[in-house]
Amino acid sequence: MSDYVHGYSPREGERLYDQAATLADLLHGDSIFPAGSRVLEAGCGVGAQTIILASRNPDVQFTSIDISPESLEQARSLIRDARLSNVVFEQRDVFNLPYADEAFDHVFLCFVLEHLADPLRALACLRRVLKPGGSLTVIEGDHGSALFHPDSPYARKAIQCLVNLQAAMGGDSLIGRRLYPLMAEAGLRNVCVSPRMVYADATRPAMVDGFTRNTFAAMVAGVEGAAIAQGLIDANDWARGIEALYRTAENDGVFCYTFFKGVGNKE
Questions:
Q1: Comparing C-alpha atoms, which of 170, 167, 113 is closest to residue 140?
Q2: Are 203 and 264 in contact (CB under 8 A)?
Q3: Over the Cα atoms of the chain, what is R_g?
């Protein structure tokens, strides 16, 4: 796995929880599995998606894995505090899964492939542990889909810094547009990818706060040190770019972003 471009600070954990709560219905309104299913959640991180999946699927048993022990401890605490008993956490590497072939009824991963240098191999590894007829669900964003008003070349330059930093670490923050070919090449069948657009303006204050301010702008702002240190942008242009991103959260601002949710089956 490439390094996590956003880091592991407490603020990043808060951002992930804000993002998950804000997008819960948009991304997970149809993340429902048959009762009695055994589901592998790959790359659960701090449990931001786990708690949504587990609470919406109380009769499903989740095995949620991540490579970071610190993130897993936060996830365990979150699930424990919510008094949910249908999740088991394990420290695992998606490229070296210890599970038997066809061990799970379904596989789920959200915001994971973008951080991997070899997402196709990751999908192949996950497909191996999936039962025939089972589904594999992938959710990813695409930073190239961001549209906003007022537009700003400085804001776009700041976003591009994040794209470039993630690419240098082996990831791909534009991976949403690649979900269909990746899943098809990994041998999944009946692949269906659906775009999930976030739209935020003054008539949707919860989305403005939860996504524009606390998710996207905060995510870009979080790479300030690396972007400037690596000479991708100077400090003045960076400040103008971040100011412009937060400006889109004002009363006359608009922000749009598209996530992609892919579902395929193993035959």
A1: 113
A2: no
A3: 18
* Burial (0-12, 13-18, 19+ Cβ within 10 Å), 2: middle
Residue 91 C-beta-side C-alpha neighbours within 13 Å: 8
Task: Give 238-262 pLDDT, tens digit per residue.
Answer: 999 999 999 999 999 999 999 999 9
Q: What are phi and psi of 104, to 5 degrees?
A: -120, 150
Q: Are 260 and 197 in contact (CB under 8 A)?
A: no
Number of structural domains in the chain = 1
Task: Give tens-digit pLDDT for 34-53.
Answer: 999 999 999 999 999 999 99
CB 182 within 8 A of CB 113: yes
CB 248 within 8 A of CB 148: yes
Report yes or no on 2 lying in a domain: no
Q: What are phi and psi of 195, to 5 degrees?
A: -75, 140
Q: CA-to-CA distance for 220 and 129, rounded, in angstroms?
A: 35
Would residue 138 count as lying in a domain? yes
Reported as a single tens digit per residue, the pLDDT across 178-216 is: 999 999 999 999 999 999 999 999 999 999 999 999 999
CA angle 211, 213, 218 (to 5 degrees): 100
Which tokens is 126 given?
Answer: 């996950």
227 within a domain of the structure (yes/no): yes
Predicted model pTM: 0.93
**CATH code where residue 192 lies:** 3.40.50.150
| Residue 198, H or E segment | strand 189-200
Given a contact cutoff of 8 angstroms between Cβ atoms, the answer to whether 48 and 111 are in contact is no
Neighbouring C-beta atoms of residue 28, cutoff 10 Å: 21
**Residue of 185, 197, 94 whose CA lies nearest to 142:** 197
3 within a domain of the structure (yes/no)? no
